[in-house]
Amino acid sequence: xxxxxxxxxxxxxxxxxxxxxxxxxxxxxxxxxxxxxxxxxxxxxxxxxxxxxxxxxxxxxxxxxxxxxxxxxxxxxxxxxxxxxxxxxxxxxxxxxxxxxxxxxxxxxxxxxxxxxxxxxxxxxxxxxxxxxxxxxxxxxxxxxxxxxxxxxxxx
Amino acid sequence: xxxxxxxxxxxxxxxxxxxxxxxxxxxxxxxxxxxxxxxxxxxxxxxxxxxxxxxxxxxxxxxxxxxxxxxxxxxxxxxxxxxxxxxxxxxxxxxxxxxxxxxxxxxxxxxxxxxxxxxxxxxxxxxxxxx
Lengths: 156, 131
Description:
The structure holds two protein chains of two kinds. By secondary structure, chain A is mainly β. Chain A folds into two domains: 1-30, no CATH class; 36-146, Immunoglobulin-like. Chain A is built from three helices and eight strands. In chain A, a hairpin with a 2-residue loop joins β7 (130-134) and β8. The radius of gyration of chain A is 20 Å and the shape is elongated. Chain A starts with a helix and ends in a 13-residue tail after the last strand. Chain B has two helices and eight strands. By secondary structure, chain B is mainly β. Chain B has a single domain, classed as Immunoglobulin-like, CATH 2.60.40. Chain B has a four-stranded antiparallel sheet with strand order 1-2-8-7, with no helix packed on it. The longest helix of chain B has 8 residues, at 3-10. The chains are: A mainly beta, B mainly beta. β1 (19-22) of chain A pairs antiparallel with β6 of chain B.
C-alpha cells in the first residue's frame, strides 16, 4: 500500500523516485476540486492517460456570495494565468473555462483543461460584470440591476 | 496505480466525511513532482494561500508543507453556496532520495507553492567519459 502511494503522482516515475511516503498518517482523500466523490480528480485523469498528462478534466470548486450591490462567484484556479481563462454569462449561467496545451516548463504545471458552470440569479447587470484573479482565486463580480437592490421603504 | 484514488474514494469513512459537507481541519493539497536534472521541483496547489500563509519544514527526510488562507470575507459578503471544506492545507512527504536541505527554496505564485529541492551530490546525474 505504501509503495503504491508513490505511484499515483508519478510522472515517468519521478515522484516515485523522490517520495517514499506520502502523508503516512492520512488515508483521507481531500481534494479542493469539489465536494463530491463523483468529481473527476485530475490525478485520476493523468493516470488513466497511461502516465501522460493529457488535458485533464478538472472541476474547480466554486463559492457564491452576495452583498447589497453584487453577487460574487469565486472559483479556485491555482496556477492558471489570466489569459488562459474564459468567462461567459448567458441565460443566467456563468461558465468559466481554462486550458493549457503546452508541456510544463520549469515552474509551471503542464496541460489541463476544465469548465465549470454555475447558475446565477436573474437580474444581473451583464454589462458590468467584472472578474479578478488573485492568488489562484478567480472572483467574478456581478452587479445587481437597479431594481433588485435592497431599498429602504419609508413607513408613512 | 490508477486504483489509489478510487480505493480511497470508496472508503466509507472518507465518503461520509465528504458527503455531509463538514468542515475539515485541513485539506490535503494536490501536488506534482518533476525531475529537473539538478533539482526536484514540487508544486503544491493551495489556492488562496499567500507567501505569508505558508510554512515549510524539512527534517529527517520529511518535507512538511502547511498553508493557510485568509478566512476573512470582504465586508458585507453573505455566503449563498460553499464548497470549500477548509481554509488550511497540510501535506507531508517522506523523501526517498537525498536532497540538499540547506538549499531548498520556495516561492508562491497564483496559489501554487513551488519548491525547488537541489539533489545531493551523490544522486546527481553524472556523465561518464569513455576512456
